[in-house]
Every structure is written in structure tokens, then in C-alpha cells.
Design brief:
about 500 residues, mainly alpha, two-stranded antiparallel ribbon, about 70% helix
Length: about 500
């Protein structure tokens, strides 16, 4: 009877996840605020139903009451997140909050399942829940800081100095872990500074490009960015180095609109990759494992081969919770959690997980495009690129699309540094979303004031172009109940 329930539950979980994912994109088509609210409430219901089914299934499979306690704690924490964001920040992006909770849920389900057979059962799941709570505290504080601190664009070289010093300390003093210098162990916790430095790096690039986009300043900014990447390469933290490189290239191109800079950057990246392959044995091992994981199964290819076996075993619908062997995948809780999820919850569930990440990125880009402050535009773009490219590196590595880089899946993989840094990143995005709402309210008040004075001429705004300032007519805003879709 229990086996039948477990087999049925995997289909229920997939249906709930698919319905949630569909709502993530359908909300962008909603033209009325009431319709949006209904979709967001439906998302919350689907989220908590999925939690109930997944943890209930794991309890039936193990008959262990500790799973129910973990379920209750997670449900209370995520309910508190949703309510606190609504109470403290009424203008917050509810879609981003819901997506964050769904990604945390997916990660907690798999970490709980994997931690059953650990030396200390459920220890990883409990620690991950503690990381979630700590991250939420930061996530709730950061938006108000972004709103109140109006001088963040002035700390250009502070960001560079602090970030560079942290990375250099890791390169010089951190112990080797998996062939790379990643971080330090403090009070039994592994702290990985590069997870936090990438946020400082985005702020540095945004502040520098906002200050000036002249060639001289671009050379200086590129040199500082290259120094960050070089330190990470020396530490053989290649995944982080690749993220820093791509984020800088995207921000530089968007700020300057110069294809030559992008081409030069890509060329330099290719040359650096070739040089790194010949200089570092660590890179050669990963490339060999990527090229032929089965042929190198007894050595470097073992991790990737086990990942592919797990994904193939799970197929479209998965084996069901506790019906597979995800614990045979090396570092399944961190680097290869996507493979573990795919084995027991199916390819459809995993594809939905990716689409949820994509919907977050779409929101980040939406916020970046609608902000009027150029510095904050660059910050939103940089953080969004950082987030989605890390997702790409993780998923691409475990599916053999690209060589494995050892990156975590944000909000899903086990790890305190990853959880806290991603929470801070999402908190910054929420702060920028609130700033956007403030800008719109200010513009609306100005419009009403002009209308009250009888000014009916078309409003003119100044745009920046190479030929100098120009003006363009902005069409009068339509009135009525129909409004632009917002994901609050």
C-alpha cells in the first residue's frame, strides 16, 4: 500500500509543480491587479500542497517522526516569509518571493531525503533550515537599506578593495578543497567569500560604469575586473572566475553598446581558457571527465557518469521519493543536487525548476529596464546575470553540457554561503523593485500636479545619445481600471 501511495505521489508532485510553473509565466499576461492577486494566492496554495505531499510521502517511506517536524518547521518558516514581506514591504514583488520559497522547498525536500542515511541523520536538513532562517533575516533587512542608502554609487573603489582583499586572502591562506582554494572553516562552518564578493563586484562595475563610460575609465574598470578573475583563477575557483568574467562582459556591453568590447572580451576569454587548460592540471581533469565520463569512470569521470546514470534512471517522471539511489552520486547535496532531484522526482519536475529560475531572471530584467537610475539599472542587470549564469553552470555541468565547475544551485543546494549570498542578492532586487515603485508614484504625482494646473502639452523627457541630449514625446498614460501587469 505504501509503495502505491509513493508512486501516485510522484505524479501529484509533478502536476503541482507544473501548475505552479505555468502560473509563473501566466502572471505576466494579467492586466488587472485582482487577477494577479488570485494567481499569486494560487501559487501559495500549490507551494504548500507540494510540501505536504512530498514530506508526507517521505514519512510514509521511513515512518520517522523527525520528517514531520522538519515539514512543520519549513512550512512555518516559509509562511512567515510570505506574511512578513507582505506586511513590511507592501510593494514587494510577490512573484520573486513565491519563487524563492518554491526553490527552497525543492532543495529542502531533496536534502531531507539525502540526509536520512548520513552519519548524523537529518543533520544537513536542520542546518540548511537554519541557513534559510538566517538568510531571511538578511533578506528582510536589505531592501530597506537599498531604499535608504542613497550614496551606494559613490563607493566605487571600496567595493573593489574589499572584494579583492577577500579573494586574495582565500588564494593565499585558505586550505585546498577538491583541488581549489574556496574558503575558511569558522566555528565548524565553511565560509566561501567568493559567494559574497560577486555582489560587491557587481556594485563596483555598476558604480564605475555609471560614473563614466569613457575609454580611459573602461580600461581601469577592466583592469580591476581582470584582477578579480585572475585571483580566482590562481585559487582554481574556476566556476566563480567564469561568473565574474561573464557578468562583467554583459554589464560592459549593455552600458557601452559597443560590440567591439564584447568581441575583445570573448577573444580574451578564449585565450585565457586555452592557457588555463595547459597550465592547470585541475582543468585538464575536468575536461577529460566531460569528454568521456564513461571511459574515465574509475577516475575523474566518476561524478559525471553517476550524475548521468541518475538522470537516465529518473526519466520523465522519476522513480519516486526513496525509490532511487541519489545517495550514490558524489556530493549530491551540493554540486550534483540537480541530478538527485531528477532521479527521484523526474525530468519534468527538474525542467519546471529551471523555468522557475528563468522567471526570476525575467523579473530581474524587467526591473532593470524600468528603473530610471542608471546605477541601479546596472546593479539589477549584473545580479540577474550572476544568478542565471550560476544556474546554467550548475545544470550544464551535471548534464554534461559543459565541463563541471562545482557550482551550487542557488536556494536548492546545501550550503550556508550560497544561501546567505543568494538571499542578499534577492533582497537587493526587492529593494530595487520598491525603488521602481517609488519612482512611478513620484512620476504619477507630478503628472497629476501638471494636469491640475491645466498643462495638456505632451510630456518631454531627456534621453542620452551620442549626438547630445534629445527630447522625445511620451504618450499620455491611459486611465481606467486596466493597468500594466505587475508581479507584486
Amino acid at each position: 500500500m505504501v509503495n502505491i501511495v509513493i508512486q501516485l505521489s510522484k505524479y501529484i508532485i509533478i502536476v503541482l509543480m507544473a501548475a505552479y510553473t505555468f502560473s509563473c509565466f501566466s502572471i505576466f499576461t494579467r492586466n488587472y491587479e485582482d487577477e494577479e492577486k488570485r494567481v499569486l494566492i494560487r501559487q501559495d496554495v500549490l507551494l504548500f500542497l507540494l510540501q505536504f505531499v512530498a514530506f508526507g510521502t517521505m514519512y510514509l517511506a521511513t515512518d520517522d517522526m523527525r520528517i514531520l517536524f522538519l515539514y512543520a518547521a519549513l512550512a512555518v518558516v516559509l509562511l512567515a516569509v510570505i506574511l512578513l514581506y507582505n506586511l513590511i514591504y507592501p510593494n514587494v514583488s510577490r512573484l520573486v518571493v513565491n519563487n524563492m520559497c518554491m526553490l527552497i522547498t525543492a532543495g529542502m525536500i531533496m536534502i531531507t531525503r539525502l540526509s536520512v542515511d548520513n552519519d548524523s541523520p537529518y543533520g544537513s536538513a536542520i542546518r540548511q533550515l537554519v541557513f534559510v532562517v538566517l538568510g531571511i533575516v538578511f533578506g528582510l533587512i536589505v531592501p530597506v537599506l537599498i531604499r535608504k542608502l542613497t550614496f551606494l554609487d559613490k563607493w566605487t573603489y571600496v567595493y573593489a578593495a574589499v572584494g579583492g582583499a577577500a579573494l586574495l586572502a582565500v588564494a593565499l591562506f585558505a586550505p585546498k578543497s577538491g583541488g581549489a582554494n574556496l574558503g575558511f572553516e569558522i566555528f565548524g562552518l565553511n565560509i566561501q567569500p567568493s559567494e559574497f564578493v560577486k555582489i560587491l563586484f557587481v556594485f563596483y562595475v555598476a558604480a564605475s560604469l555609471n560614473k563614466s563610460r569613457e575609454f580611459k575609465n573602461i580600461v581601469v574598470t577592466t583592469a580591476v575586473a581582470a584582477a578579480h578573475v585572475l585571483i580566482l583563477v590562481i585559487s582554481t575557483d574556476l566556476g566563480a572566475a567564469l561568473i565574474f568574467f561573464v557578468v562583467y562582459l554583459v554589464m560592459l556591453y549593455v552600458a557601452t553598446r559597443q560590440p567591439l568590447y564584447a568581441a575583445a572580451g570573448l577573444g580574451a576569454g578564449v585565450l585565457a581558457a586555452i592557457a588555463g587548460y595547459h597550465l592547470f592540471s585541475h582543468i585538464k581533469v575536468r575536461v577529460e571527465a566531460w569528454q568521456d565520463p564513461i571511459g574515465t569512470y574509475d577516475g575523474s569521470g566518476y561524478q559525471v557518469a553517476q550524475s548521468l546514470f541518475a538522470i537516465g534512471t529518473g526519466s520523465w517522471f522519476g522513480t519516486g521519493l526513496f525509490q532511487g539511489q541519489p545517495d550514490t552520486i558524489p556530493v549530491a547535496e551540493t554540486d550534483f543536487i540537480f541530478s538527485a532531484i531528477t532521479e527521484e522526482m523526474g525530468v519534468i519536475f527538474s525542467l519546471c525548476l529551471i523555468l522557475i529560475c528563468v522567471s526570476c531572471y525575467v523579473m530581474f530584467l524587467n526591473i532593470a529596464m524600468e528603473l530610471h537610475n542608471r546605477f541601479y539599472k546596472y546593479v539589477a542587470l549584473g545580479l540577474g546575470t550572476c544568478y542565471i549564469f550560476q544556474v546554467f553552470l550548475q545544470v550544464g555541468g551535471v548534464t554534461k553540457f559543459i565541463p563541471s565547475t562545482g557550482m551550487t544551485l542557488p536556494f536548492v543546494s546545501y550550503g550556508g554561503s550560497s544561501m546567505l549570498s543568494t538571499m542578499i542578492m534577492f533582497g537587493i532586487i526587492q529593494g530595487l523593485y520598491i525603488l521602481r515603485e517609488d519612482e512611478e508614484e513620484k512620476l504619477e504625482k507630478e503628472r497629476k500636479a501638471r494636469d491640475g494646473l491645466g498643462r495638456t502639452a505632451p510630456r518631454k523627457t531627456r534621453t542620452t545619445a551620442k549626438s547630445g541630449p534629445k527630447f522625445e514625446e511620451v504618450p499620455k498614460q491611459r486611465t481606467g481600471k486596466k493597468q500594466r501587469a505587475r508581479s507584486k
